[in-house]
Amino acid sequence: MSIEFEIYDETIQRTIAFRKAQMEDVALVHKWMNEEHVHPFWQLNLPFDRFEKHFQKAVADTHQTLYLGLIDGEVMSYWEAYWVKGDVIENAYTPKAYDQGIHLLIGEKDYLCSGFALPLLRAMVRFQFQHEATTKVVAEPDIRNDKMIHIFKKCGFAPIAPIQLPDKEAQLMFCEREAFESRWNDEYRKADF
Description:
Layout: E1 3-9, E2 14-20, H1 26-33, H2 39-42, H3 48-60, E3 64-71, E4 74-83, E5 100-106, H4 117-128, E6 136-139, H5 146-155, E7 158-165, E8 168-176, H6 177-183
Pathway: Siderophore biosynthesis
Function: Acyltransferase required for the direct transfer of medium- to long-chain fatty acyl moieties from a carrier protein (MbtL) on to the epsilon-amino group of lysine residue in the mycobactin core.
GO molecular function: N-acyltransferase activity
């Protein structure tokens, strides 16, 4: 499986990488969707056959790309990078053509509460901003998920408004390229932990 993006993060002294998720990853992602820290927010703790159909549809969906996140080569997180245009979120604000959005989860429990969420998110947003026409990355975490909202804020996402989506009440958040780059312009700058 080829790596799509890789960066060494000085704050954790680890290499973060992302590779595209494929159908052979379905069992691992299904396992993560059933974890206690994941299913209340993702609501995808389905029987395997139903989840497999959902995942197959998601992998084939051309308006998003699914990734697995790795730290020092170990697969430990799941990501959905999507184009806002064509997504349900496009009705929540007036998006530009190349706005991107992000969904994520840390699946492996060993990586929870260990300071990895911010470096991972920062790496993915940097990856998304490699698309030159993208000037904004959007997040819509579950409004109850205080931990993730806090991490998004630390990364440079600004809370915009609570919004109602078909499957949840969410906090709409924007990360503008200019604000992100001014905050993280030095690759090795220590984050304000």
